[in-house]
Amino acid sequence: MKIEIKGLQHSFKGNPDREALGEIHCKVSPGQFVAIVGPSGCGKSTFLRLIANLLEPSTGEILLDGKMPVEIAGQRRIAWMSQSPALLPWLTVGENVTLAQRFRPKVSRPRLTSDEALQRVGLKDDLNAYPSMLSGGMQQRLALARILTMDADLWLMDEPFSALDELTRERLTIELLELWRPLQPTVLWVTHNIYEAIRLADRILVMSPAPGKLVADIPVSLPYPRHEPSPEFQQLLLNLRSVLGKNVKEAVQ
């Protein structure tokens, strides 16, 4: 899915109003994996919610394949995943996955059936388990399986692995890439973890402190899998830290 952002701004109503996003312009090509990083409160999650049609922009325009978000959301072409896997506790693993399919437009055959999606994320043997019986990592795998069955062209992912321990988090990022690469949806991935951003993305957008603006667009051309000790990885890490540090310092001066 192609994304075009033109002069996007958003303020939350109050006394006084709080400006969450400054003016943002950007384009994302179909199939790109884009990480969005920046300090807490800079508007990263707000940015995703505007694209998902969960909020209405104060000014500016969002076009998804040339259409407004409300049109695309109605077609069920957008998948959302956050820190919480948002599973229904009274439904089994299998029922949680098939629930997503009930709200998807009818297609001749989904790219992945529920059984195939559960197989891909390693939960085929847990079909009749309930969410409370799963670890945090397994619950996020289940949320991923649900996304895989939706045939969505755009994945909006708001720090989905941030609540997990580092080993589980790293393992799931590797698994996520293996799931994403054959399907090639467009992905916007919000994260505070700059190592994670470099491991996953082929492009990193850096936001300034609130009101958030895009202050850097960093391409990542390293081949997968990406190894942290490599000089190329470390140079990107250094560049990213420099951009983030400079913008935080300017915001408090």
Predict the CATH topology of the largest domain. Answer: Rossmann fold
Question: What's the order of the H and E elements?
Answer: EEEHEHEHHHEHEHEEH
Shape: globular
Order of strands in the sheet with most strands: 5-6-7-3-8-9
Taken as a percent bin, the fraction of beta residues is 15-25%
* Total of domains: 2
| Radius of gyration computed on alpha carbons | 18 Å
Structural class: alpha/beta
How many individual β-strands? 9
Integer average pLDDT: 88
Helical segment tally?
Answer: 8
Helix content: 25-40%
Quaternary organisation = single chain
Poorly predicted regions: none
| CATH structural class of the largest domain | Alpha Beta
Cα separation of the termini: 39 Å
CATH architecture classification of the largest domain: 3-Layer(aba) Sandwich
What characterizes the major β-sheet? 6 strands, mixed
CATH superfamily of the largest domain: P-loop containing nucleotide triphosphate hydrolases
